[in-house]
Structure formats: C-alpha cells, structure tokens
Amino acid sequence: MDHQQEVSQSGDSHGPKATKRLMSLDAFRGLTILGMLLVNNIALDTDTPRNLTHAPWNQGIYFADLIFPWFLFIVGVAITYAAASHIRKGLPLWRYDLKAFSRAASLILLGCLIDSSLAKRPVFDLGVLQIIGLAYLIAALLVELPVSRRMIIAVGLLAMHWAAIRFLPIPGVGSGVFTQNQNLINHLNQTYLMPFHLNGLISVIPTSALALIGTVIGDILRRDELGQRHKTIYLLAGGLVLALIGWLWNLDLPFNKPVWTSSYILFTSGLGSILLGVLYLLIDVRMWRMWAFPLVIFGMNAIAAYVIPILVKVYVLQGWTWKMPDGSTQPLQAAILHACKAHFGGIGGGWTYTASYILVWWLVLLYMYRKKVFLRI
User: pTM here?
Assistant: First the structure.
C-alpha cells in the first residue's frame, strides 16, 4: 500500500490541498524492502552476520527483527494519507470502508498465493502479508477516531496482550511461563488455532497496535499548522519515548518477535519513528534527495518488490534446472551460487550472489518506475 501526500494513487491532484509525495516515507519503505531482500537472500550459511539473522528466543533484537515491524509502522503512517485523500474528495464513508476491506482481502489472498507457492500445494494460513492485511484493516477502520482514542486503543491492545502472557495460566504448566516451547501464545495456537490453519491470529492484536501508532505519526506529518522543524522534533522525541518505554517493558517481558511482545512493538516503533524523523529532516526539510533515489525505487513499488522476487525464486530459480560441468543437474539458483563461489570464494561468492540478486531486482523496479508501472493494492 502506497502513501499519499494529499494526492490520489493515480496522481490526481485535484483539491485545495494537493501537495507532493512525502519522499522520506518512500525512502523509509524502500530501506525496509532493501533490508528484506538482503535478509531473505543472504547466501553465507554459517558465515552469515548475526544481525542478518533473527535473534534467538528472548535474546534481544537484531536488524532482521526490525524489518517486519517497520513495514507495519509505515503501513500505519500511509493510512492517514489515504484517509485524507478520501475525505478531501467528499466520498461517502462506506466507500472508504469498502476499499479498506478490499485491500485487506487482496493482501490476504496474495499472501496465501505466496505461501502456497512455497509449499507447492494450496495453503490457507496467516503469513506475512496476511498479518499485514488484518492489521491494516483494523487501523484503517479506526483512523477516523481522534488521536487520543487511537492511542488509548493501542495501549489497551498491548496491555491486554502482555497481561494474557503474564497472568493467564497454561493448563498443566501455570501462569507467567514464557519459554520457546511453553508460553500462552504457543498453547493457544497449537490447541485452538492450528486445526483451522489460523495459528498466528493472536499476533493481529499487537500488530494492529503497531499500525495504530503509525497512524498517529502520520497525523503529525500531515498537520499543516506544524512547521517542519516541529514535525521533526515530534518524530524524534516521540520515537525516543516509545523506544524507552519499550526498553523498560522489556525488563518485565523480553523483546520477542515470534510472539510480538508489547516491549518489542514499542521499541521497534520508536526506532521507526526516529529513523523516519531523520529521513524527513534530510530529504523533505533539507532537500538532500539524490542519495535517497535508489531507496525510493524500492519504496514506490513495495508490493512488487516483495511478491515478484519470491514467485520468480520459487518457479524459476528453484524450479528450473541447469546442467553442471560434471554432468549433474542442479536448480538454477544453486548453479548460480556455485558459480559465484567458484570465482570469488565462499564468503565473496555469497556476497556477490546476494548483491547481484538485489541489483537485478532494483533494475527491474527502476524500469517499472520509468514506465510508471506500479503494483497497487
């Protein structure tokens, strides 16, 4: 989903307050997509840098653990621009709600397509895009509420999620147990949700809170009465407060991505607000834009950058085979990686493969950008 700086996704600028896109948000989205492509396609095996893997259970936050929550945070920020565009056009509320349901359904179906492609069979589950779709839907339907009420709802969702983990007993185990194999969320998933392929549904509670926090940041960026300096200060200071609260909450219930603990939500959203504030200052305030263009290419076609590489990897790189010099056949992906490592060594070849993979997709997206082809949801 793309953001709108008081303009429609088609570029329509009719209306009294039509302004340019917020380039810093596109750059932030692009940085997140770049991080995703890097983490998902690293080819170094045991030599992979620790921060490009996910942190072990209750062992903090690595760079790889920031990508998903940052994307959800950006989704929340973007919602406010879409809602403002709808209001400006004078369209009825039911059309906005219908559009929100349509976007959520599209994300869920697209997520099921990706998961089915990976599994080589029809799958209905709650993967990455499905969670994004559900969290988006809740935040989009609540964005019309005042900021104070949205924050109360977000805090309530996080408090409820935290309290359930800390105080609701697990049958035969007790309350407050939070290990990788024994915790309330895992128990509910395996006992009640997995038979219906809905394990992960509980994570919609904290992820919706994260998207709601994003809508509050989006409202700050959209406020005409605030100058650019004050917007920057609010984003940086607000992010610092969120990260500090998350860090303190981590002392009670640790940062944990698989469960989406409340401390993890607040800390990552705080870092997201700080980073967006820095990008806003550099790109939209000081107008230092040239360096951000490569990120914008990823950011303006985020859905395409996420979906197309996965499908090409599954059906082409892993589906097609290549005859090796010794007469054996390997999947095309393995053959390319083997060639890279043969020429540049284990580590050098692994980095060459990953960097080349990312560059190829950047060039594809650059071509789409030049042709004004954008995959919208």
Answer: 0.92
